[in-house]
User: What shape does this take?
Amino acid sequence: MIRECLINPRVGWRYIDSEIVAFNCENQQIVIWNETASLLWEKIAAGMDFNDLIEFLTNKYSLSNKRAKRDIITFLQEANSCGFIDYNNKELKIENQNDKDGENILLTIEMKAIENLIPFAVTFETTYVCNEKCIHCYIDHNQLSLSLSEIRHILNEIAAAGCLFVSFTGGEFFTRNDAMEIVEYASKLHFVIDILSNGTLITKSIADKLALHPVRRVQISLYGATPETHDLITNLTGSFKNTLNGINFLTKAGIKVEIAFPLMGINFHERHLVKNLARSLGCLLSPSHVITARNNGKRDTFQLRLNDEQLKLFLEDKELSALYAGRKPFQDHQFYFKFSDLADAAPCYSGFNSCAITPSGKVLPCNQLLYEIGDLKKNSFSKIWHNSPQIQYLRDLTISKLTKCSKCQLLTSCARCPGLALLEGGDLLELSPENCRISAINHSLKGGENYG
Amino acid sequence: MAKGSYAPPRANMKGDTKSLVVAAIHKGCPSSSARIKKG
Assistant: This one.
């Protein structure tokens, strides 16, 4: 006999429109419940037991008791079969799903969020303090951090605005003594949580605690396959060993780990070793060939970038470059499919369904687009998100307004980033020089004329 | 939802995201997660 239904504590969820999107961080399954299922889900989350669920459904829709009971059991079985709830059944069966389905669901949600201007994914920079001193890091470590109570208040606000996916990052998130309290609070608000970390401060105790919450991924930065290379980049002796320890604690606790691997001239020779290391650790690998200027405008990091020859080798390496998860060329942006002319699309959809919050409470469209749209110490998130003249300006931009890029022959194959254009070119509407370099090399690899 | 417009509770969509990396969640702002910042 079914007595109680429990939502898996590793499931985060949020209403988008009239339907609940739920994400199971334990098995990485995502589901969109229909309206009736969403209502039941809310009642289950509020602690309603099986008999009360029947009564609720019977009254709300004038159903017979028998019909309501049958439909609820079918729903509970469905939710149970993919691990979203547990009712009188300790064995959570995991369905084998097609990966493509998950990607399509995310795209559906993203489109819905864009159309309704819901900030469904927020990058939350909680501190700029870090125990590593990486040679390529772009942040200003001297900024003050928000307090725990300020962070809680902001989490309340972005949850109310419809945010489901929150990424806690830094600096190093775990330099905050209250990092676990932030995670616990986000968990209470049903966020799906990503954490970007260097892993060195993650202990077994922290990993085990994270596994009690809807933590979808922990992304760990790794800069090489040897301590010599990794520690040279982090400027912290022993960091390679401690990062691997952190990864092992997380994977053993059942947390999915993704290795972020920024490619630079000095670690390029270890790229295949890092790929093999990630595989042996059971982690996804996310390499990136984009090293940016520092946030204060200094460009000394440019010398760390892959040179043209290395960049060619990376782009030619289909297995490795396919893992790059950053900005895609315009032609790959499915968002644009509804536009008959690419020129009418926005140059970037940050600020439509996503944004970033800095440790001092500033709101940015993206942590790579340093174009302040508001200050949470002065205004509410809702007011900024809906009324900021700066965000309105961004949302009104179209590719046709890009001074030079709109006329470039390489536009469709370019992954132009407005953040890089602003930071490195000095103008939101102008060229992004590094994107120009990458596009030109990509073009030459496909047999096109040299745009260098 | 008014009485009479009842649809049995079920999933409209369901799928797996195991192989998707963090940035796949942030397609509206994909570089956000791809910008590697530790240090």
